[in-house]
Structure formats: structure tokens, C-alpha cells
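Could you please consider the sequence and fold appended to this message?
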Amino acid sequence: MKKDKKEQALIKIKRESFWSKIIKFFRKSKQGNNISIQTNNTESKIDTQKEKFIEYVTKIENEETQLINLQKRYRKGEIKEEDLTEEQVKKLCDLYDKQIENLQKSNSIRKENILKFI
């Protein structure tokens, strides 16, 4: 009877996970080290590109926030037009033009949406 039970018992199967197979493959292959070096080089290139982009964005944000603060101070009456340089006046005019364009676009979109519901 003991033989029958052993024969009927399920066979244990070693199952390796997907990731363990991949790790074993790279450990066995000679190119595993080369691949990690190449990824480090590309990661460093991506990091420098990210840093440059972040610097660019912060520079733009600083200029825009300075202009918006200047606009707020002008509206409050803290600054007069005579106190501003020609360059500042030009930048403020451009800022106002952009704001007007954005308002006109948003108004036209709202009008279209309202007309859809009617």
C-alpha cells in the first residue's frame, strides 16, 4: 500500500518566477555588465537634459512672476508709468495682450459650449 500512495502523490514542480529567470539570464551572459554600463550613460544624459529643462522653466517662471508682480503693483497704483523703463512697459503691454487673447479664446469656447446646450 505504501507504494500506491507514493505513486499517486503529486509531483512537486520547481517554478521560477519570471524575474528570477531574467536575473539568471543576465548573470550567465557576458553582456550583462555592458548593458548596465550603457544604461548608466544614457541615464546621465537624461539627467543633464532634465536639469537643463528645469533651469529653463524656472527662468521663464521667474520672469513671468516678476512681470505679474509688476502688473499687480501697477494696478494698485504703487508704480506709475513714468517709473517704468521702456522695456518694462513693452513687456507689460505684451503681457496684457496675451491675457486679452486668452480671455477671448476662453470666452469663445464658453459661447460654443452654451450654444451646444441650447
Remarks:
- The helical segments are 2-8, 18-28, 32-76, 86-117.
- The radius of gyration is 33 Å.
